[in-house]
Specification:
Length: 183
Amino acid sequence: MHFSKLRLAGFKSFVDPTEVVIEPGLTGVVGPNGCGKSNLVEALRWVMGETSAKQMRGDGMDDVIFGGTTSRPKRNMAEVSLVVANEDRRAPAQFNDAEELEIIRRIERERGSHYRVNGREVRARDVQLLFADAATGARSAGLVSQGKIGSIVQAKPTDRRALLEEAANIRGLHTRRHEAELR
Ligand code: ATP
Ligand code: MG
């Protein structure tokens, strides 16, 4: 699954609409301290369905919305859009009719988040599953934040198993089984 575009508006320090084109191969983001490098990675995590505000370095999920500066007022809405290529048609059946998928998550202050995939409103769970099968997603081992290595070394065996399951590409199976049991 190749991520080709990330668009942000009102998200953390990215108050003005910003588009990042991600070419195939390795992409590096460089810049001085506080310029928003980690915020970009958090935007990726967030649009893939992150539910923990703590993982986003906030107290509540509304903290991802631009909070204002001395010269600019705060916003009441944030939106992140991620375009992924689906040429190999590996997305779950409900999304597999398109060559390209655009996942959009939007949050409004005190009103929570909504998700859309190619314009159609979907559940958070649908987006989480879409990425879980592609060995990526908000909790993916591919996203290594500060302090993560230490926590893996000290992790409980059951938590470490989750990493192995992801490496074996079976993480989506558990979520699906849980969904099936709820029905
Ligand atoms: P470092 O090199 O130190 O890791 P970085 O490039 O990763 O820095 P970030 O942590 O992504 O920087 O960005 C931090 C900046 O984002 C801070 O200036 C912080 O004030 C700003 N910021 C975070 N959340 C918000 C928000 N909700 N509204 C406005 N600005 C925000
Ligand atoms: Mg950083």
